[in-house]
Amino acid sequence: MILTETASHGEALERTRGENDMSTESPKVMVILPTYNERENIAELVSALFRLDIRNFHLLIVDDNSPDGTGEIAEQIAQSQRYRGKVNVLHRPQKQGLGPAYIAGYKRALEIEAQLIIQMDADFSHQPKYIPQLLEQARTNDVVLGSRYVAGGSVDERWGPIRKLLSWWANRLYTPGILRIPVRDATGGFRLFHRNCLIGLDPDRIKANGYVFQVEVIYVMYKLGYRIKEIPIHFPDRERGVSKMSPSIAAEAALRVLQIMFRHRGLSPAQRRQTP
Ligand SMILES: Nc1nc2c(ncn2[C@@H]2O[C@H](COP(=O)(O)OP(=O)(O)O)[C@@H](O)[C@H]2O)c(=O)[nH]1
Ligand SMILES: [Mg+2]
Q: Are 106 and 94 in contact (CB under 8 A)?
């Protein structure tokens, strides 16, 4: 789905068209993987990603000093003969949540000249097989979202009716209703951004953490006039390790969406940051 171009966004969309010229032979692609206790997944995920055989492909693992030793495993991978120079690890001293991990990751990716930045969970809920489709859609869009709630998308069959309903309500009704954004999966974390979108975003503008972090980023991207496209994904639950979702996180998230609306509703494409 390509978002409807409202009058105020039309001009910005035109401007973006030239900025994201992908005529360069092979843009530097960087996948950011935030990790906290992913020792059972990380090595397998790294090899699955490199098996995609994408040109000029790099990884940035952002580990918050996982007690299970994920950071050390990531470091070994980065130092190995096979991945040296292609895998970077950002070690952070303590667990600060997904939002700050991504903000640090975005900044590092910009510093190391990534052109196309992909973010995904490190637990196989975001399946590497969709990355070629994200890259394909990046030819004509600024931001591409892996979406559970567009036609063809789906969530784990094992989700009970209550969990399904809650996620559907949050993504299809509540969030777009409050924020007035035509995005069907605003809480999803499988995303691609062109470099210029992360520059324009100015990661320091983003204050939320957890699920609402994803909502805040996409709201600001929309307000800044970037072209957003959703592609359908299937979202299986993690097989290994434990999820960090809880009912109190969900309840807090609903309130935080209102906060985000008040914080950013006045933004416009003129407020894109120009330089990193
Ligand atoms: N660096 C970092 N990564 C985190 C943190 N919390 C979660 N993650 C990672 O973020 C991703 C999503 O977390 P997950 O627990 O799977 O969330 P859920 O699928 O929504 O339950 C996974 O790759 C986690 O390892 C954190 O505080 N710091
Ligand atoms: Mg997960």
A: no
The residues, any chain, with a CB within 8 Å of residue 59's CB and separated by 6 or more, are 30, 31, 32, 33, 46, 49, 83, 86, 87, 88
Is there a contact between 48 and 127 (Cβ–Cβ < 8 Å)? Answer: no
The confidence score (pLDDT) of residue 4 equals 39
* Total-model pTM: 0.91
Query: What is the set of domains in the chain, with CATH numbers?
Result: 7-269 (3.90.550.10)
* Strands in 120-188 per DSSP E: 143-147, 154-155
H or E stretch covering 104: helix 98-111
Report the distance separating Cα 254 and Cα 269, nearest Å: 26
Would you say how long the chain is, in residues? 276
Atom of ligand 1 nearest to the CA of 122: 23
Ligand 1 atom having least distance to the Cα of 92: 1
CA of 121 to the centre of ligand 2 (A): 6
CB atoms within 10 A of CB 147: 24
For tokens 């809650």, what's the residue?
166
Structure tokens at 65: 């000093």
Chain segment 51-70, per-residue pLDDT in tens: 999 999 999 999 999 999 99
Residue 51 to residue 45: CA distance in whole angstroms: 10
**What is residue 4's DSSP assignment?**
P
